[in-house]
Amino acid sequence: MEVQDKDELKQLQDRLAVSAKLVWDRVDAAERAAIFAYGDHYKTFLDRAKTEREAVTEIERQAKALGFVDLAQKQSGPRAFYSYKHKAIVLVVQGRRPLTEGLRLVAAHIDSPRLDLKQYPLYEDTDLAFLKTHYYGGIKKYQWLARPLALHGVVMKADGSSVTLTIGEDPADPVFTVLDLLPHLARKAQMDKKVTDAFEGEKLNLLVGSLPLGDSETKERFKLHLLKLLADRYGIDEEDLVSAELEAVPAGPARDLGWDRSLVGGYGQDDRACAYAALAASLDVQDPEHTCLALFYDKEEIGSDGNTSAKNCLLDEVVETLLERQGESPQARRRVLMASKALSADVTGGIDPDYPEVHEKRNAAKLGYGVGFHKYGGSGGKYSTSDANAEYVAWIRRIFQEHGVIWQAGELGKVDEGGGGTIAKFLAVHGLEIIDCGTPLLSMHSPFEVASKADLYMTFKAYRAFFQAG
User: Fold this and answer.
1) What CATH number should be reported for the domain holding residue 82?
2) Are the C-beta atoms of 297 and 89 separated by less than 8 Å?
3) How many Å apart are CA 27 and CA 35, to the nearest integer?
4) CA–CA separation, 241 vs 444, rounded Å?
5) Are 124 and 242 in a shared domain?
6) In a shared domain, residues 208 and 318
């Protein structure tokens, strides 16, 4: 049947074609206010959770405040948490249906790219004191030069005691920095080289002092001054640094970005944008049909290797504990997981208008257009990815539509441009349904990532809807 009327053509277009939905065009005044309020709470979380240990501490604190009990201590209650080695944590909200009918899982990671201190970090050179670092995760090295850095972490002493350090966040604190070469002398050393060659990992050293101890006859007196300072102030000696986890991260708080305050700029939004949304959804969900788990893992940025990563047995342990608590056999764990549905809660790259050539625009996320989900990730020929099946994608679409979640679908970059992995493939081995779903970012993996408050809120709304779904 031929359609001639313009109104009919418009109706046909609206009914059959996909059109991008800008969040700000589709929310009322009340939801707009909720978006900005959520952004303020999120910034506070970013400031309190700059490391994976700090994230676990903050997640546990908020959960306890709302009555979550310690599952590892065999405490009983409909809302529980399970903290693992201070670097991973799971929140549980009990559902009405039996566990064997499946769980609803939202899994995020709480580590971010940074500079870790080496085991023997302290040295002096040219009458200056430095700390050696080894960068963690995928960074552009030059972004970490000539900027104020803070030190966060823990020093474990041989006697079993520990010292927690956070230096550089209070305005009264000193900060640290990695030196950069002045442009007057940088032509051959940096500017004539490829970016990958111009900035060396072994030169990402923190400047930490310049005062000597003793006289000119004293050996390594600038290093010695720092060692004495550490001993006097914290009770730490040089050997204690071998058993330390100290991370150099950008100093200062997350900030509203833009005159209209519609964006958030700050460190660690990959993946704390999704981690906070998972936390907020867990705290907000009420009386769900299926038992809900929010999982917060470490080590994603280095391939999910290690005993606090998504490759560990934490999910198995939590499910078996839940089964035992309900008087069922822990051997039912496999059946529970195979019947479950999950979201791999990780951010995606939004289109940068200055570099559109790395994206395929029809299948790329845009800031302000809601939470994004990827049917698959990886690179090239879908290598190193989990590819969600069509049935599950359709189910996700329905849930989001029913709950008023504004969403967009896409992939990370052009087919042969690069790509990236998530923890989805490590959870998919359990046989559960899973898809990547998270917040679009600009300047991802930089010390100052950018997110839209609209997308942050829609990520929370998506996870809450997922938890509430039957």
Assistant:
1) 3.40.630.10
2) no
3) 9
4) 30
5) yes
6) no
pLDDT for residue 8 is more than 80: yes
What 3-state class would DSSP assign to 362? helix
In the three-class reduction of DSSP (H, G, I as helix; E, B as strand; rest coil), residue 453 is classed as helix
How far is 184 from 176, CA to CA, in rounded Å?
24
Closest CA to 119 of 144, 90, 156, 152: 156
Query: Quick check: 251 and 146 in contact, CB under 8 A?
Result: no
Same domain, 436 and 318: yes
Q: What is the 3-state secondary structure (H, E, C) of 61-90?
A: HHHHHCCCEEHHHCCCCCEEEEEECCCEEE
Domain presence at residue 159: yes
**Hey, what long-range contacts does 73-77 have (CB within 8 A, 24 or more apart)?**
74/325, 76/325
Strand partners, 306: none
Query: How far, CA to CA in Å, does 63 sit from each of 43, 53, 58?
Result: 18, 15, 9
- What's the Cα-to-Cα distance from 409 to each of 146, 342, 349, 359, 393, rounded to whole Å? 37, 17, 12, 13, 10
Same domain as 219, residue 150? yes
Residues 304 and 451 in one domain: yes
Those residues whose C-beta lies under 8 Å from the C-beta of residue 357, and which sit 6 or more positions away, are none
> Do 274 and 178 belong to one domain?
no
> Is this structure's pTM higher than 0.85?
yes
Residue type, 95: G
Q: Looking at the 3D structure of the chain, how many domains does it have?
A: 2
In 68-146, the DSSP E strands lie at: 69-70, 79-84, 88-93, 104-109, 114-125, 128-136
Could you report the per-residue pLDDT of 263-296, keeping only the tens digit for each? 999 999 998 999 999 999 999 999 999 999 999 9
DSSP state of 365: B
Q: Considering only CA atoms, which of 463, 342, 346, 344 is closest in space to residue 400?
A: 463
Over residues 371-405, the pLDDT tens digits come to 999 888 877 788 888 899 999 999 999 999 999 99
Residue 280 is part of which domain span? 19-112+267-468
By DSSP bridging, strand 263-266 and strand 292-297 are unpaired
CB–CB of 271/347 below 8 Å? yes
